[in-house]
Amino acid sequence: MFTEQCNLNNCMLIHSGEKPYECEICKKSFREKGNLIKHLLIHAGVKPYECEVCKKLFRQKYRVNKHMLTHAGEKLYACEVCKKPFSLKDYLIRHMLIHTEQKPYVCEVCKKSFRQKCNLNNHMLIHRGEKPYVCDICKKSFSQKSSFNKHMLIHAGEKLYACEVCKKSFCVKELLNRHMLIHTGEKPYVCEVCKRSFSQKFNLNNHLLIHTGEKPYECELCKKSFRRKCHLNKHMLAHAGKKLYACEICKISFCV
């Protein structure tokens, strides 16, 4: 009789829309007390459910059950478009956004849209100026973990990505992709003003400064400004008195 009464009460809450159990920390409300208790584990940082295989911890039991499927190797959910299989239905749903080109998560600041909420959350760190990922070696900080991981490869000295044409190797795949444009001759970045094209985006950005007249790099000593940082660095040699460039014929040296 007690169980039936509880089920009736829960049913009535669904119809009424009431959520009487409120989290005192973030004010999120729940229909059932059990769901509030599970939610409080997030704030407490408690993850009581452990994967027996890899020891990864989870806050909720259903999450560890889903996770176990990845170890079992079962891939029960297949994409109807490209036939790629997935171990979890959630992964398949996320994957389908690629084919539909839907990006339902929109940044309220710059209106950039994302397929996954976690990508939007990472993007928001840029607007907030947060850089929670700090390199222990050089103390450089990053707003996104993926950027931090790429940076760490530089310190490790690993160059895992090799060009098949000239065998030059790179520590980050994006650098290899940029490099490949040299061999293919592609110049996908086009200036809308003069239609000049570039193989790399940063070269286009530098070029656009010519049209806008911007010179963002200023010498702190004489206040002369430059479009490119490399030009400022060369200019600074003049103030430092360094003369690194020597004429091979008469041996007179120059700072630039």
From TrEMBL:
<comment type="function">
    <text>May be involved in transcriptional regulation.</text>
</comment>
<feature type="domain" description="C2H2-type">
    <location>
        <begin position="189"/>
        <end position="216"/>
    </location>
</feature>
<feature type="domain" description="C2H2-type">
    <location>
        <begin position="161"/>
        <end position="188"/>
    </location>
</feature>
<feature type="domain" description="C2H2-type">
    <location>
        <begin position="49"/>
        <end position="76"/>
    </location>
</feature>
<feature type="domain" description="C2H2-type">
    <location>
        <begin position="133"/>
        <end position="160"/>
    </location>
</feature>
<feature type="domain" description="C2H2-type">
    <location>
        <begin position="21"/>
        <end position="48"/>
    </location>
</feature>
<keyword id="KW-0479">Metal-binding</keyword>
<dbReference type="GO" id="GO:0001228">
    <property type="term" value="F:DNA-binding transcription activator activity, RNA polymerase II-specific"/>
</dbReference>
<keyword id="KW-0539">Nucleus</keyword>
<feature type="domain" description="C2H2-type">
    <location>
        <begin position="77"/>
        <end position="104"/>
    </location>
</feature>
<keyword id="KW-0238">DNA-binding</keyword>
<keyword id="KW-0804">Transcription</keyword>
<dbReference type="GO" id="GO:0045596">
    <property type="term" value="P:negative regulation of cell differentiation"/>
</dbReference>
<comment type="similarity">
    <text>Belongs to the krueppel C2H2-type zinc-finger protein family.</text>
</comment>
<feature type="domain" description="C2H2-type">
    <location>
        <begin position="217"/>
        <end position="244"/>
    </location>
</feature>
<keyword id="KW-0862">Zinc</keyword>
<dbReference type="Pfam" id="PF00096">
    <property type="entry name" value="zf-C2H2"/>
</dbReference>
<keyword id="KW-0863">Zinc-finger</keyword>
<keyword id="KW-0805">Transcription regulation</keyword>
<dbReference type="GO" id="GO:0000122">
    <property type="term" value="P:negative regulation of transcription by RNA polymerase II"/>
</dbReference>
<feature type="domain" description="C2H2-type">
    <location>
        <begin position="105"/>
        <end position="132"/>
    </location>
</feature>
<dbReference type="GO" id="GO:0008270">
    <property type="term" value="F:zinc ion binding"/>
</dbReference>
<keyword id="KW-0677">Repeat</keyword>
<dbReference type="GO" id="GO:0005634">
    <property type="term" value="C:nucleus"/>
</dbReference>
<dbReference type="InterPro" id="IPR013087">
    <property type="entry name" value="Znf_C2H2_type"/>
</dbReference>
<protein>
    <submittedName>
        <fullName>Zinc finger protein 84</fullName>
    </submittedName>
</protein>
<dbReference type="GO" id="GO:0000978">
    <property type="term" value="F:RNA polymerase II cis-regulatory region sequence-specific DNA binding"/>
</dbReference>
<dbReference type="InterPro" id="IPR036236">
    <property type="entry name" value="Znf_C2H2_sf"/>
</dbReference>
